[in-house]
Amino acid sequence: MSLTKAEVEHVAMLARLALTDDEVAMYTTQLNAILDYAQRLEALDTSAVAPTAHVFPLHNVFRDDVVRPSMEQAKIVANAPEEEDGFFRVPRIV
Amino acid sequence: MKLFAKPAHELHGLLVQKEITATELVEAHLGRIDTVEPQVQAYMTRTAEAALAEAQRVDAKVAAGEAIGPLEGIPMALKDNLCTDGIKTTCSSKMLHNFVPPYDATVVKKLKEAGAPLLGKLNMDEFAMGSSTENSHFFPTKNPWDLNCVPGGSSGGAAAAVAAGEAVFSLGSDTGGSIRQPAAFCGVVGMKPTYGAVSRYGLVAFASSLDQIGPFTRDVRDCALVMNAIAGHDPLDSTSAPVAYPDYTALLGQSIKGWKIGVPKEYMGEGLEPGVAAVIDKALQVFCDLGAEVQECTLPHTEYALPVYYLIAPAEASSNLARYDGVRYGYRAEGADDIVEMFKKTRAEGFGAEVKRRIMLGTYALSSGYYDAYYLKAQKVRTLIKQDFDQAFERFDLILSPTSPTVAFPFGSRTDNPLAMYLSDVCTLSANLAGIPGLSINGGFAGGMPVGLQLMGKAFDEPRLLQAAYAFEQETGYHRQMPQLGE
Amino acid sequence: MQEFEFEIVMGLEIHSELATKSKIFCGCTTEFGGEQNTHVCPVCLGLPGVLPVLNRQVVEYAMTAGLALNCTIAEFSKFDRKNYFYPDLPKAYQTSQYDLPIAEKGWVDITTSQGTKRIGITRVHMEEDAGKLVHGGGTLAGAGYSLADYNRTAVPLIEIVSEPDIRSVEEAIAYMEHVKAILEYTGVSDCKMEQGSLRCDANISLRPWGQKEFGVRSELKNMNSFKTLQKALEYEIERQAEILRDGGVVVQETRMWDDAKGVTISLRSKEEAHDYRYFPEPDLVPIIISREWVDRVRAALPELPEARHERLVAAYGLPSYDAGIITDSKAMADYFDAACRHYGIEPSPIADDDGYRQADQQGKDRAKQISNYMMGELTRLVKEDGKGFEDCPISPENLVGLLQLLEAGTISSKIAKTVFETMYATGKEAKVIVEEKGLVQISDEGAIAKIVAEIVDKNPNVVADYKAGKEKAVGFFVGQIMKATKGKANPGVVNQLLKAELDRR
């Protein structure tokens, strides 16, 4: 399984990363090297093995449906790159 | 009296005896920072004023005859991926160069409650991705034992600060070795607790199922004291373990006679530097002398830990780091016409090469058609790696290995080859995958550089790891050595 | 629909905000509205380092909805991350459920003009809502910039996915109405469509009659009123039909209803190639639901629309059509039941063979009267006001008061109409209005006979018409008499006396 430049560009699009041609070339090489290394997993038969998503087997961790104070608007937008009247302002969407 | 060279439990005695004040203690560390920081460069942000204010509060308390806690007045510092209310938290990334959290991480809250003055925030590999702190967007931190060498990573600043006497203790985070490996490289104590033992709330996520916060300290007793302060169930973290938490100092000083210690052969193979191997051999003899029984053991799936880690961690990271999109906080690229362009430029400019590499890798591993072959497969092999440990702990009280196959390496020596850099984590990754605790202590020196000794135990067995490490430390005294800096 | 040359195949994905007080993963309020970014905290803003903790009530509500929709509740369920970038999504992933939803394999029975039909429910899953974008310059397309408000972010949702069992726009509407009623009955959601707390997406395809395979579908996004749903579906069906008639191929894509233009528009773009990269949410732990828990939630289920429908038909003898309309809205059904109670309509203490306790014939007649008023005048008035039965100014008790006056002959049905309008406008009791305005019906034969005689005297030529066999003349006299009595004369008495008077001439 070898990753092509086109696939790397597609992945970059999914990840919303603007890559230069040089970066695409570099990541194509590097990701292929890492994925080649990962190929060794295929040697293992895991058909009867359950995946581990959590190492500690917890379940049903809940909070009660209780309203707590929100944070004041000024603090919420304090880190905004661009703020307008308590909103986060972003460039046009389409 | 070199206050900056003493562990917290000694300094606590001096404070209680009124031989020193907390203000003097903070000032001593601020002075030390001024002296050595130009060489070491551990700090991202310094908070001297707040530290002094907190020290004065402690001094007033002592003056009033009130009792103080074990960490009260003890100056500390935090890795810059732990959120601090009102104090910049950058993750050493351009992406968060100006981010000021409006809230405290649970561990920060706990240490504030414990009364430890905060000296500042510590440099790291960007978003905790790296093994050398060379991936910091801002500057590399130097190894206090040899300024030409890396301090390890990703918590390089946190390890170096403690080693150089710039903080009595610090907190870092460990996703695949990011506490233990820099602790080893800098000759200090570093522990990655059991997954779930320390709340992750407020730790900027890298790989959620692997991340844990843990302490860097001068000695094992301090490590236990800091664990006492930070461990515990947190209702804000759904993966926090609702168990009874022990006094981590309880077993210190007790004998380890008759313990069975396993040494996994897979950790002692190729790539292990002869100097490191020699230190490990000597350390094994020390444990024998302490009455433990040392045997070779096997963790047969060790060779798969690296690929498993480098599929799971980037996959989770690709999702965790998606929120850095220039909308709500942090960096935003200039001159983008529409939202998609803004996202792409912001992320391209805001992240460094290693972060982008892992986002790419993780995005690919989760993408349609590849999920089963990569992510799901890795999660299944993760089960096998965990089972290896379960089986080993049926026979052994703890597992001992080098923390890293090498001592600290020179700057730039591994930056060209990501895979080679990843291989330096080979001894530490498995503990994160299995969720078990791992402790690195100074096991001795090779060519003047500290060598880390890693102890791993079963989940929630930290008190016994500390017990064994304490016995070793008392027997050898390597922890008392400090690098020569600024003198 | 047989004359339409294609078979329509539709499935609906209904999104419903749950009626919890706080958000799904943090303590911020779910209250609608509020100044922008004031129902927000670090957790729902997705600040670096925050973690989610699941609101237990979300699970309870999702189970309730699942059971009410005849689903099986999963013993093991978990959350996953759905990854995509959009400025209304603070974490750039939506915490949702992918392969192990909380409920699966249910159904509902809907009633349309074609009869009753079962629609399969594929699944019900829990997820979080996104924030809101305000577009500078009005519409999304024309906006130079947008403004993000995260008040709605992480308000809990359930998504109810139907099987592709829906075959007409009428069925789609009936299905949506029925699901809405179930959500209202169970209290799982307030279903305020105008506030976006109930909305749906539709998958639509056409195929030639008799063909087994599905045609290519389009997904129609975000319809948040029945009117929009109807218009958008009708438009989209016709759009696809035209393509197919011309021998074209429908493109599989996501489309959106543009209300201003009255068309559906494609949301496709080169960046739109979605790959959501679902994976298990590592920050949340699995949900394991015991049989006991399911039983407890099931036991707490209220009477659902279908059961209520059956009860209204059996106990009160309502036509199925009436019962269907009344039970489609919980507020209306509650109103009906309250009115019956006030009217003293007592179901028999002994249950019939089907287990229903029927009312006697008088009770059934009274219930039908209630139903007639509710479905006619009352529905018209509340709809005009944009209200629901829950805020109806005429209380069930007062409606019964009016019907009792009518039944006792105290007022005529014509007067009743006037009284009813006044009741709606003022909220007063019928009795009070009748007294205040002196609207009591005149049934006194002496008084009426006198008026009849006077009017007949004044109109000899109309009497002549009557004698000449013109039946219209009677209507004229009745009208004059009613006018003279301001409509209060008992019509029965008037007719009887008028006929006698005319025959005497």
TrEMBL record, chain A:
<dbReference type="Pfam" id="PF02686">
    <property type="entry name" value="GatC"/>
</dbReference>
<keyword id="KW-0648">Protein biosynthesis</keyword>
<keyword id="KW-0067">ATP-binding</keyword>
<dbReference type="InterPro" id="IPR003837">
    <property type="entry name" value="GatC"/>
</dbReference>
<comment type="function">
    <text>Allows the formation of correctly charged Asn-tRNA(Asn) or Gln-tRNA(Gln) through the transamidation of misacylated Asp-tRNA(Asn) or Glu-tRNA(Gln) in organisms which lack either or both of asparaginyl-tRNA or glutaminyl-tRNA synthetases. The reaction takes place in the presence of glutamine and ATP through an activated phospho-Asp-tRNA(Asn) or phospho-Glu-tRNA(Gln).</text>
</comment>
<keyword id="KW-0808">Transferase</keyword>
<dbReference type="GO" id="GO:0006412">
    <property type="term" value="P:translation"/>
</dbReference>
<keyword id="KW-0547">Nucleotide-binding</keyword>
<dbReference type="GO" id="GO:0050566">
    <property type="term" value="F:asparaginyl-tRNA synthase (glutamine-hydrolyzing) activity"/>
</dbReference>
<dbReference type="InterPro" id="IPR036113">
    <property type="entry name" value="Asp/Glu-ADT_sf_sub_c"/>
</dbReference>
<protein>
    <recommendedName>
        <fullName>Aspartyl/glutamyl-tRNA(Asn/Gln) amidotransferase subunit C</fullName>
        <ecNumber>6.3.5.-</ecNumber>
    </recommendedName>
</protein>
<comment type="subunit">
    <text>Heterotrimer of A, B and C subunits.</text>
</comment>
<dbReference type="GO" id="GO:0006450">
    <property type="term" value="P:regulation of translational fidelity"/>
</dbReference>
<keyword id="KW-0436">Ligase</keyword>
<dbReference type="GO" id="GO:0005524">
    <property type="term" value="F:ATP binding"/>
</dbReference>
UniProtKB/TrEMBL annotation, chain B:
<dbReference type="InterPro" id="IPR020556">
    <property type="entry name" value="Amidase_CS"/>
</dbReference>
<feature type="active site" description="Charge relay system">
    <location>
        <position position="154"/>
    </location>
</feature>
<comment type="function">
    <text>Allows the formation of correctly charged Gln-tRNA(Gln) through the transamidation of misacylated Glu-tRNA(Gln) in organisms which lack glutaminyl-tRNA synthetase. The reaction takes place in the presence of glutamine and ATP through an activated gamma-phospho-Glu-tRNA(Gln).</text>
</comment>
<dbReference type="GO" id="GO:0050567">
    <property type="term" value="F:glutaminyl-tRNA synthase (glutamine-hydrolyzing) activity"/>
</dbReference>
<dbReference type="GO" id="GO:0006412">
    <property type="term" value="P:translation"/>
</dbReference>
<dbReference type="InterPro" id="IPR036928">
    <property type="entry name" value="AS_sf"/>
</dbReference>
<dbReference type="InterPro" id="IPR023631">
    <property type="entry name" value="Amidase_dom"/>
</dbReference>
<keyword id="KW-0547">Nucleotide-binding</keyword>
<feature type="active site" description="Charge relay system">
    <location>
        <position position="79"/>
    </location>
</feature>
<dbReference type="InterPro" id="IPR004412">
    <property type="entry name" value="GatA"/>
</dbReference>
<dbReference type="Pfam" id="PF01425">
    <property type="entry name" value="Amidase"/>
</dbReference>
<comment type="similarity">
    <text>Belongs to the amidase family. GatA subfamily.</text>
</comment>
<feature type="domain" description="Amidase">
    <location>
        <begin position="24"/>
        <end position="466"/>
    </location>
</feature>
<dbReference type="InterPro" id="IPR000120">
    <property type="entry name" value="Amidase"/>
</dbReference>
<comment type="subunit">
    <text>Heterotrimer of A, B and C subunits.</text>
</comment>
From TrEMBL, chain C:
<keyword id="KW-0067">ATP-binding</keyword>
<dbReference type="Pfam" id="PF02934">
    <property type="entry name" value="GatB_N"/>
</dbReference>
<protein>
    <recommendedName>
        <fullName>Aspartyl/glutamyl-tRNA(Asn/Gln) amidotransferase subunit B</fullName>
        <ecNumber>6.3.5.-</ecNumber>
    </recommendedName>
</protein>
<keyword id="KW-0808">Transferase</keyword>
<dbReference type="InterPro" id="IPR023168">
    <property type="entry name" value="GatB_Yqey_C_2"/>
</dbReference>
<dbReference type="InterPro" id="IPR042114">
    <property type="entry name" value="GatB_C_1"/>
</dbReference>
<comment type="function">
    <text>Allows the formation of correctly charged Asn-tRNA(Asn) or Gln-tRNA(Gln) through the transamidation of misacylated Asp-tRNA(Asn) or Glu-tRNA(Gln) in organisms which lack either or both of asparaginyl-tRNA or glutaminyl-tRNA synthetases. The reaction takes place in the presence of glutamine and ATP through an activated phospho-Asp-tRNA(Asn) or phospho-Glu-tRNA(Gln).</text>
</comment>
<dbReference type="Pfam" id="PF02637">
    <property type="entry name" value="GatB_Yqey"/>
</dbReference>
<dbReference type="InterPro" id="IPR004413">
    <property type="entry name" value="GatB"/>
</dbReference>
<dbReference type="InterPro" id="IPR014746">
    <property type="entry name" value="Gln_synth/guanido_kin_cat_dom"/>
</dbReference>
<dbReference type="GO" id="GO:0005524">
    <property type="term" value="F:ATP binding"/>
</dbReference>
<keyword id="KW-0436">Ligase</keyword>
<dbReference type="InterPro" id="IPR018027">
    <property type="entry name" value="Asn/Gln_amidotransferase"/>
</dbReference>
<keyword id="KW-0547">Nucleotide-binding</keyword>
<comment type="subunit">
    <text>Heterotrimer of A, B and C subunits.</text>
</comment>
